[in-house]
Each structure stands twice: as C-alpha cells, then as structure tokens.
Amino acid sequence: MLKTRVIPTLLMRDGALVKGVGFESWRGVGGAMQGVKVFNARDVDELVLLDIGATPQGGEPDWMTLEDLARECFVPLTIGGGVRSIAHFERLLEIGADKVAVNSAAYESPHLIEEAARRFGVQCVVASIDVRRDGDGRATCVSGCGAQSRAIDPAAWAREVEQRGAGEILLTRVEYDGAMTGYDCDLIRAVSEAVSAPVIASGGAGRYEHMAEALAAGASAVAAGAMFQFTQATPAEAKAFLAARGVRVRRSAGPGLVR
Known about the structure:
Layout: E1 5-13, E2 16-21, E3 24-31, H1 32-41, E4 47-51, H2 54-57, H3 63-72, E5 77-80, H4 86-95, E6 99-102, H5 104-108, H6 111-120, E7 125-133, E8 139-143, E9 148-149, H7 154-164, E10 168-173, H8 185-194, E11 199-202, H9 208-216, E12 221-224, H10 226-230, H11 235-244
Parallel strand pairs: 1-4, 1-12, 4-5, 5-6, 6-7, 7-10, 10-11, 11-12
Antiparallel strand pairs: 1-2, 2-3, 7-8, 8-9
Helix pairs in contact: 7-8, 9-11
C-alpha cells in the first residue's frame, strides 16, 4: 500500500512566488528560490512548482529560473505551467523535474499525454485538472488558469487522461484555492472512484483536519499552498496529525513517525 504524501505547492510568475484566492487577486509572497530552500529544509515528501505566468501569456516556461530552482531542489519535484509539447516535457525532465504536469494542452492535444507516457513513462506524467462548479453545483473542467470552460465532466476527463497514460491526477477546485476552508470532498470522491491512478487533492486546505477529510474521500495525497505560506502549519506536523489517525505517511523528521 502506497504511503500518503503531503505536498506543498508553489505558484510562480515572473520568477516570484504568488498566491491568490480562486485563481484571482494574485499577490507576491516571496522569491521562488527562497520557497524551494524553505521546503528543502522541512523534509517534505514532494514539491509541486507551477509557472502560472506561462499559460495565459502563451509563452515558453521560464527555463532559466526553473533550471536554477530544480538544481536547488533536493526532493521529488513536479513542474507544470506552459507545457505544450513533447519538447517541453523532455527539457523539463532534463533540467531536473521528476514529473511534468500538463493541463491546458491536454485538452487541445490529448495525444500529448500518450506520447509523453510512451517516451518517458507514466510515472512522469501528471494530468492537472482544474474544476469549477456552476450555480447548480455541476462540476466542469476549466483550463487557462481557470479562464476557459471545457464543458467536460471532471470524472470523465480523469478517466480519459488515465487511459491515455497519465500516472497521476492533480485535482484542484478553483473557487476553493487559497480560501483555506477545506477541499471539495464530493469532487475528490467522484474523481477518485473513476480512476485507479493516484489523485492529489488540491485547493482549500487550511487545517490538518481538511487533509484527513480529503484522504477519507479517496485522495492518495494532499497538496497545500496558502496553508503552508500563511499559517504556522508545517508538512511535518501535517504528517504527524495524519499518522496519529492511522494514515500511513512517509518518514519525516517529526517525532513519532515510523516507516
């Protein structure tokens, strides 16, 4: 049985870290390199780094900055943002990413997931799925940093990307992102029941209890951004909290945790 991972998420734009609420009202929260160094020292399981400036502008990923950050990062690293081709996958893996997350381009060219999985292995391919709910509560996939509706059911899309070769799903409820009021557990449950690939719950974590709720809904891992940037919460304490409730977590520097 796989152990549960607690994964900090860093959002980068123009070389700086930013954080917003609901994919809006972005504000700077420090330097990207500083963020990577902080989480290196905190013995995290993995780190997700998303270049949110690349997709809306239609530009290339910030290769120079990403290479510097990957060189400094000493934990497994997933990089996403602006990934549109196999060449992007290849270059990100070459500069030090362990996994590559793809979102918007997968809708336009679903074969990109197939080719990436075939060339680099399914373990390297993370399908990032962003979701909004309408006034009736219906969940719909969105892309372009939440700006474009795809009119696709998230569970159906998760099944498709898994069949095409995605080894993992990064699932984010857009409206909850940065709000720290809890994950969308109904969404997590629907997608987790639709696929066998691990689902990383993202968007909404504000307390350790929220992480436990997401895992109970079927998530295999929990990601958090604002919670680790704006509160006293730490990944080690999150794992200690979960371990005390019977969740199998990876060994940490925190007390009382075992393999």
